[in-house]
Structure formats: structure tokens, C-alpha cells
Amino acid sequence: MSPLEALGRSDTDTSPGSDQLVSVTPVALEKLIELRAEESDAEQLGLRLEIVSERGEDFRYDLSFCEYLDAGFTDEVRTHDGLKVVIPGKDVEMLQGATLDYNDTTGLVIRNPNRPAAPSVEGLTNDDELSARVETMISDEINPALAAHGGFVTYVGHNGEGIVFLTMGGGCHGCSMSKMTMLDGVQTMVVDAIEQVTAVKDLTDHSTGDNPFYS
């Protein structure tokens, strides 16, 4: 399996000071150019980087070589020392500031500072004063604590009866301790700090990465 396959888990030069969307480390660039050279039409090919996960899931990416001149009108194209990188228009915001890297152990990897959008759950409220308080607490207290484990929580909404719905992502999704962390740790923090909240419900399906949320 090639490093590209394994990852499946306006043209602007990216010289210093230019507007970069995604950073490509020198070692990743070297590997990508090496892989591109194996293609018969290498000089016409760029790297297309796309988010293929559904809303509310942890980010999953697809990397493929494509003819950069066929990029869509809303796609963004950047040049990284001779390699064109194509970002679909729909993914520009969620890939802003990400870094594409490579190492011999994991192959091509993407470090993305952005968070997936929360899943849409009918009947929940996520745009009122209580939601703002919960989201502030998650941003300022909970996620910094979980960051040491490569994880984060995302606020989905509340049901108007004191129950807050969250999901867990990153290193917390699929971790054998993550459900306990959510119920015993995060719930305690939120309930103790915000009197309107009586319980936290975890919508994450920790048993599999293929279907991250309960329906």
C-alpha cells in the first residue's frame, strides 16, 4: 500500500510571507515528489487534499494526484516548491493552518488545528445563552485538559431539560477509557460549574471508528 493510500485513514506561490492554506514539510514534499515521479504524466499532476468524512465525524482525508489544470473554479491551488496542492473549495476553511508531514513509521500524516463541525441532532438547542456557557467552558477548560491525550469534545446541544449532549474526538474516540472520562470527568466539571445542567450524554460510539455516532 502506498503512503497515499495509507493516509485514507487561484494559483499562489508559497514563498515566505505568502498566503499558505496548508503547510507541507520538506520531508513530505520530498516524498510526494518522489511518488509523483512514478506517474507517466507527472509534470501535469498536483496533489489533491480533500476531507472525506461526514459532518460530526473525526476528520478523514483523501490524498490523490490529479491534473491541477482541471481544478474547480472554487478550488484553491498553491505551489509548494514545484508541487501544486489543490484544496477543494468546500474544505478550505477546515484545512486552513493544517500541516502535511511524513515519517517512515506512519507515512503521510495531517496535523489539523481545526475541529470537525458538530453533528446535527434534531430537537437540540445550540444557539442560546446556556449553549454559549457550555461552549466557553469546553474551549477554555475541558479541551485544554484533553489535549494532552490528543482528544477533544464537541458540543452538540442541550434538550432544554438540563441534559447536555457532547461527542468526543481525536485520541479520545475509540479509547477504552474515553467513555469513563466523559461520564466521570467532563460531566462532573460541567454539572458542578453550570447549575442549569444536570447531566451530560455522550453521543460518541466508542466501539468503532467507522460509525462514530449513535443514530
Task: Offer a concise description of the structure.
The protein is 25% helix and 28% strand.
Helix content: 25-40%
**What's the CATH H-level superfamily name of the largest domain?**
HesB-like domain
Structural classification:
alpha/beta
Q: Can you tell me the overall shape? A: elongated
Oligomer: single chain
Distance between the termini: 33 Å
| Biggest sheet features | 5 strands, mixed
Radius of gyration: 20 Å
Question: Would you give an account of this structure?
Answer:
By secondary structure, this protein is α/β, with parallel strands linked by helices. The protein folds into two domains: 3-111, HesB-like domain (Hypothetical Protein Aq_1857, Chain: A, Sandwich); 129-202, GMP Synthetase, Chain A, domain 3, CATH 3.30.300. It is built from five helices and eleven strands; from the N terminus they run αββαββββαββαββαβ. The protein has helices spanning 3-7, 26-36, 92-95, 129-146, 178-193, and strands at 11-13, 22-24, 45-51, 61-67, 76-80, 83-87, 98-103, 107-111, 151-158, 163-170, 199-202. The strands form three sheets. The chain has a five-stranded mixed sheet with strand order 1-5-6-3-4. Strands 2-7-8 form a three-stranded mixed sheet.
